[in-house]
Amino acid sequence: MPDDPVDDQANPSREAYLQAVRQAEEDHPLPGENPASRDPADAQLWLTTYAELLRFKAAVIAVAEERQAGLSEPARDEVRATDLRILEAERARFERRHAYWQGRKEMLGA
Fold first, then answer.
1. Is residue 64 within 8 Å of 84, Cβ to Cβ?
2. Nearest residue to 6 via CA among 94, 82, 97
3. Helix-strand-coil percent breakdown of the chain, rounded to 5?
4. HSE-CB of 46 using CA atoms within 13 angstroms
5. Is the separation of the CB atoms in 61 and 86 below 8 Å?
6. Largest Cα–Cα distance in the chain?
7. What is the pLDDT of residues 50-106, one digit of tens each?
8. Domain residues of the chain, as ranges?
């Protein structure tokens, strides 16, 4: 039996959580997104897409924050340590991608 109760080998759900956090924090393009595109229409498409995703993520975070307030302390701590952390990481990733496309649009003169 491992000494650490949160040992990733002994706790597959912990490993799945860590994988979700890593994926949320990585700056990876969405399917169909080509960061090297020189087409101003692509830049506008992805600016719009990431703006939509940012609005959606902000709404999800707001609901999660509101609802977690009514939970027991252990449940609230879990939501804060996992769900909200992943949601915030995704929001930050969308902000970085939106900023990338804003810069790309300006570079393309669009």
1. yes
2. 82
3. 70, 0, 30
4. 26
5. no
6. 61
7. 999 999 999 999 999 999 999 999 999 999 988 999 999 999 999 999 999 999 999
8. 38-107
